[in-house]
Amino acid sequence: MKATIYDVAREAGVSIAAVSQVINGKGKISEERRASIISVMEQLNYKPSLIASALTGKKTYTLGLLIPDISNPFFAEIARAVEDQGDVHGYSLVICSTDNKDERVERYLTLLGQKSVDGIIIGTGMDSGELLDLLLKKSIPLAVIAREMPGHDLATVVVDDYEGGRMAARHLLGLGHTRMAVLAEHRKVISSRERIRGFQDEVVEAGLQLPEYMVKMNGRDLVNDGRRSASELLRYADRPTAVFCCNDLLAIGALQAAKEMGVRVPEELSIVGFDNTILATVTDPPLTTVSQPTEQMGQLVVDLVLSKNDAAKPGEPKRVMLKPELVVRQSTGKPISF
């Protein structure tokens, strides 16, 4: 039979109220007594009922994470980092893959509300600001990761996308490229727009131009979009010698297009990705990419959302911007004439 709170109290030689206070992190209990009770809980493998906790308005020790697509390695790595950091604090994670669709976001938010999660981490786009306003009214602790939520003062953890774009451009310019193109996600994705802006500013400062027709904005089927758009670019008479892709999946699509069209990488086409997912190390050739510190991002966002749920440490909205890093592999090189 499963151990109960009564069993813990009896074995620890304390009252049920004392055990309850330890579970909920409340009450004036000495550290020695607290450690003793926790030790008994571990020995008996006692697990507080999350359902009972939810019904009584107590912590359920669960967090919700909204991401666009769990099959995207970047968001899978974010989810793992959030899960690992949540586990450090004794929290479980409910992961919801939204496909950036508001109807799915709304459905998952209802689910998370029913589970009485102790906080929600948002890593997905929302077309409707009403959904976010609804969450804010419910006073559920919120934090945002790898996204910007303009107009809302929310705890946020992002990488410097603008600087990441500049890094990619500096690398390609340093290799001698003058005809460059950009593949990006949908126009509404703020991170992609910032990466393009950084890339474009660096190119212009070098005395060159990035023509509008050399910037391809794509939908959501990223590998196929990258393949299709790169194929278009490679058919131009003034085809680019280098392509900056605003995520690694688009870059993989560009690699596929080059291979199908007999364009050698990096001899005839240099390709730079963004994210530095595990896929960047297994492509042929391995992908030069701008790295996001996913592990650090996951740790920070969990700490931010939990700080809002701690009465002893009232959390104020805080925006953390981390620095990206360029990881140079074999998909970039000096341009050759053709």
Description:
With about 350 residues, the chain is of the alpha/beta class. About 45% of the residues lie in helices and about 15% in strands. It has twelve helices and twelve strands. A six-stranded parallel sheet has the order 2-1-3-4-5-11, sandwiched between helices. α8 (about 160-175) packs parallel to α9 (about 190-205) and α10 crosses α11 (about 250-260). The longest helix is centred in the first third of the chain and has 16 residues, at about 75-90.
Helices, strands, pairings?
Blueprint: H1 5-12, H2 16-23, H3 31-43, H4 50-55, E1 62-67, H5 73-88, E2 92-97, H6 102-114, E3 120-122, H7 129-137, E4 142-145, E5 155-159, H8 161-175, E6 180-184, H9 190-205, E7 215-217, H10 222-234, E8 242-245, H11 248-260, E9 270-275, E10 288-291, H12 294-307, E11 319-322, E12 325-327
Parallel strand pairs: 1-2, 1-3, 3-4, 4-5, 5-11, 6-7, 6-8, 8-9, 9-10
Antiparallel strand pairs: 10-12
Helix pairs in contact: 1-2, 1-3, 5-12, 8-9, 10-11
